[in-house]
Amino acid sequence: MIDPLTAPALASNIVQFVDFTSKLISTTHNLYASTSGAKAEHLELEAVANTLRSLADDATPPSQRIKNVSSEESTFIELGDMCRRVSDELLCVLQSLRVKGSHRGWTSFIQALRSEWKQKEISALQARLDRIGDILNTKILKNLQIKVYLELQELNQENTRLQAARTHDIAFLASDVQAKFGEMGQEFKKIHEKNKSTESLKQLVLAAKQGRTYSAEQQILDLLHFEGMENRHANIRSAHHKTLPWIFESSTSPGSGRSDSGFVEWMVSEDNLYWISGKPGSGKSTLMKYVWNHDLTRMNLEKWAGSSQMVIAKFFFWIASRTELPKSQEGLLRSILYQMLRQFPYLIPHALPSEWHAYTSRDLEPSRLRSDDLQLPELLVAFERISSLLVTKNIKFCFFIDGLDEYSGKPNEIIPLIEALGSSPNIKTCVSSHPWNEFEKAYGQSRSRKLYMEEFNGPDIERYVRDTLEKDPTYQELQEMENTTPDLVKDVVDAASGVFLWVYLVVQSLLDGLLNGDSIANLQRRIRQLPKTLKEFFKSMFNNIEVFYLEQTAHIFLVTLKSFGTLPLLGYWFIEQEDDFAIKLEVQPLSMQMTNFGLKQMRKRLNACCKGLLEVQFNEANNSDNASLSSSVPFQWKVDFLHRTVRDFLREKEMQDLLTGWAKSGFSADLMICEALLAQIKTSPQEVECLHPEGPLEELVSIFNWHMLCMKPADEQSRARALALRDALKETMQRIRAAAGLSGETSTTDLLTTNLQEKGL
Prior knowledge:
By secondary structure, the chain is mainly α. Helix content is 61%, strand content 5%.
């Protein structure tokens, strides 16, 4: 299809052809400017012929690349053909004049033309040129105005989605285009009658060209962006109220017992790297999220930047991700490049020149470009190109990269990349990781440019424990009723060893004790008897699960461990249903009352079966404009592990054997996930918002697809159930799309059918 932002240029080319040809057959166009005889005359004829050919070519759309031709595109093709036919006829005349080189003395092309044509033929040619102008005005330009406005509106929406720094530019462009269309509407008829080209149309072409530039920027940003890029950052708990301000203290605080972290000094200095380390569960990611979001971070970094522009970018590695990019070097580079280029889109042609050419050249098809085309070597080169420009462009960056220990490869692979990212004097990097030997060697040599969380978070732990307990009415009553109240807070802090996750679990245990009527003495005994390591704590939590729930517990944990993506809370509600429940279920959206009931019930079931090791997280809808819609409620609450250490614990062989022993015979996590997802899809809202390519239903279908392909049916009965689920999903999606007024299958369901056929299912 012809891009609405390309169409003005094509319209301008047609106008130029009509204008030039009209002048050519008028009495004002000199054939030659000198009296040097045949040689000058033939040179002039050659120039006229070349100009005609060029203008006719430019006025013809690339029809061989246009598929599913619309009526407007058909009109463009018709106009191009008309221009070419006029050009061919005049070129025949020019060729004839060149052959008859004996004719001398012509002062204009019209005199030469009259030697070949009669006045009637010349008038007919002018009428055809008029006809081209009329068609352009009546059939093209008015419709084009609407399409260009819609294209600019889409450009603005995409700019918002990608968070690119073109908001004001696109608004100015839209205003400019509107003005140009207004001028053109007043001038076109007048100019056409006088056979003059319109300056407004030329200006519109320039504005449309700028729009195509913005569109190309957006497409390349989209090429870098990947699903789940923000998930890890979004899922990290925010810091407890009034905790972590010590990171911005630039000197020792009286009575704090803590030394200066050196973080503020690092931010304003020329040193390029700072390392945050600590034990598992000590709060490293929480601190990284805290400093990334804090105004003081930007304020201090701007002191370092001076007169340069300052931009902060982030990446949070996520080893638990079911896809590769959030835990890979490629994902890190994609995210960093995306954040750099969305802030400074004018750097895109320098960073990715081949991709830029593909999106801006008429000779290439950008649809052939895929995200997979940008591999690690290309991304590294792109970063190096940007780095080399930062000094001259007066730009400085600071990267916050969390969880180097969650990188899927070896530490010695990621350390050189971090070094490369900070090689420019205009780039700072703050990283966090466990204190592994490799990271200690690379980053731990400077005492003033590193911190260990357990050395600083004692007062934060104390504040968290005290605030949480003192908000509990039963604890307040105990303090008032008992004459002596030992300091439970101090007992917890002393035993914590700086591990915030352990503290969180202890506080939950204390709250359970308060609910059960424990005395202060019993609460103290709880603290003394609780395991002192996370692993032992997790084991003790398993020992407290009621026997009745063991099978459900195993199924829930095994499903969460295996799931390709974080599953919606409502999906877990369908897990323990009878066999073939999902297939027999009617395609009918749940009422809001039933949806809320299911969410409430499943929260209770998770608490009973998983003892807090799984938590329910709220995720904003993919499209923020639809986040508040009731149709998004079934998808926004998702289930994930409390912490990475829980997932690691459950993956140990001892725990895998335990869970497998608790699960029912022949249990298949893949099969159970597919059944639960089919049930949720069947009962999901059927609004169009849920069905767009990046919408929640497509996400569920993608997860279903992945688990269907992973499935290894143990017998013929299991194979039959898998095939029934596949067919039911396909039929369900067709019915939902039809109910929403959409036709055809999605690419995801098409891919599912193809892949399963290749697998033999």
